[in-house]
Amino acid sequence: MWDQREIQQQLGVINGKLAPDLIIQNATYLHSIFKKWVTGNIWIKGDRIVYAGDRMPAITEGTEIVDATNKKIVPGYIEPHVHPFQLYNPETFAEYAGRLGTTTFLSDNLTFFLLLGNEKAFKVLEQLRELPFSFYWWARFDSQTVLQDEKEVFNQERIAEWLKRDDVLMGGELTGWPRLMNGDPDITASLIAAKKAGKKIEGHFPGSSERTLARMKLLGVDGDHEAMTVEEVEARLQQGFAVTLRHSSIRPDLPQLLNGILEKGHDVFDHLMMTTDGSTPSFHMDGVMDKCIQVALDAGVNPIDAYLMASYNIARYYDITDLHGVIATGRYATLNFLKEDKNPVPTDVLSKGKWLKRNNEPTESFENVDWSAIPDFKLDFDLGEKDFEFSHSVGINMVNDVITKPYEVTIDLSVDRLSDEHDESFLMLIDRNGKWRVNTVIKGFADHVQGFASSYSNTGDIILIGKDKREMFRAFREMKQMRGGMVLHEDGKIAASIPLPISGGLSAENVEVLIEQELKLKKALLERGYKHGDAVYTFLFLQSTHLPYVRATQIGLYNVMKNEVIIPSKER
């Protein structure tokens, strides 16, 4: 963490032989252990707090001194369950979130795991480690879909290499928990290896019964973030789970959960955390973890509890309080300066000793991560007339933006264009290497989307949706030409698009630009009949077998509940 030279310099400051780099003078700061506001001075050398208390250092020559009078200082916010690949990439999301006070991230590794070998993935992680943020990671045990080569991709050797890393704090999340409960040897071995390595295990148990929760606890699961009602929060706490309350673009549950906890008089805030759970860009227009804190404040949660649910509670659970969540000697110099404790949006942000924001203005951007390790999205195939043949009588019916059921298709699929008088559209899932395809029909997506193409999906394979086969083909061509992205095509021209040049799944734009692109695309889809909550999640979860009831996967149209293929994928 800190080498001997750095530690000797830090001791030199305490011993009065060296000046600190930065002093925060007259600081009123939240002490996470005492759970109260204290006053004093904070000395910083490099990226570390070397002292917090009443004293001033003996030497201050060359030191930056910041007077924090009339400010409240809290630990930097921690996002404990982030999917940093929701159109944005980890770097751009961190830069955006950091200036709103969220500077530490416990991040999903799924995209890196699927796209890169471990050697290349770890090189990217090392680049991210050099940024003035703190990145930690999960180690996935399953793909949350059905892959043609699942066992080869998620093999024990690859997973074990992730679990050896000190920046991997968690195993999971366990979207494939039924496999664990049924004794699957691979996922069981992964969980045991993670527990032996001292990692927490995060569940994924929406709507689970008390019996299921008890079984999962006995199998070694530590926490869960899927409670959707206050009763589900109580059930998880009753069984001894760590509970993370979710406030996301598809499950904005936090207000009702907190209101329910307060109404029932539960004094449990020391045992709760909060997350935005990988929300899409536009959800973050009004914040990241600061947004969650504001929801808690608005619900009437004590301000100290609200801030600790987004900092110290998380650090304590993941056993990183020696670095995060406490403003005290030895921790990272990661601080948020507030105008008042009822407003969690910081006026100034210090992260690992570097200013991300000063006097409400962002500082300069930092060195860019080299994303060239991730393979470019280059399609070396084209689609032909036979690819657009549809004949099966079973399709996908959208119940909401992410839940889908099978249904009987009765419309004529031999036509080149479907009527706008109904909400059924052609749907294709195509291998990004052009080897196979799955053709079916989707009901409830929209009633007059002519052609839509997306390289953004759970596995990086290609999704085509539309009423008009010709416009679907044009959307595919445009998406191919831009080397990845989302394209809505209509009457021979692009109606809206989001370029995703990093392997077809991630934007290179800053989050502010990406939000504008996403809002434009969502508005265009809404105008064409998309009536659900979050279209981006529709594309992401179309393949995801951790959700009921039917999914388009690499092996075909898949019945999740029966664990069987309805329509097999077809070789091209």
Automatic annotation (TrEMBL):
Gene Ontology molecular functions: adenine deaminase activity
In Pfam terms, one family for this protein is: Amidohydro_1
Matching InterPro entries, A to Z?
Adenine_deam_C (IPR026912), Amidohydro-rel (IPR006680), Metal-dep_hydrolase_composite (IPR011059), Metal_Hydrolase (IPR032466)
Give the catalytic activity.
adenine + H2O + H(+) = hypoxanthine + NH4(+)
Report the residue ranges that make up the Adenine deaminase C-terminal domain in this protein.
402-563
Q: Which UniProt keywords apply?
A: Hydrolase
Q: Where is the signal peptide?
A: none
Domain called Amidohydrolase-related: residue spans? 73-355
As recorded in UniProt, its EC number(s) are 3.5.4.2
Q: What family does the Swiss-Prot or TrEMBL record give for this protein?
A: Belongs to the metallo-dependent hydrolases superfamily. Adenine deaminase family.
Name the record gives this protein: adenine deaminase
Q: What species is given as this protein's source?
A: Sporosarcina thermotolerans
Question: Upper lineage ranks?
Answer: Bacteria, Bacillati, Bacillota, Bacilli, Bacillales
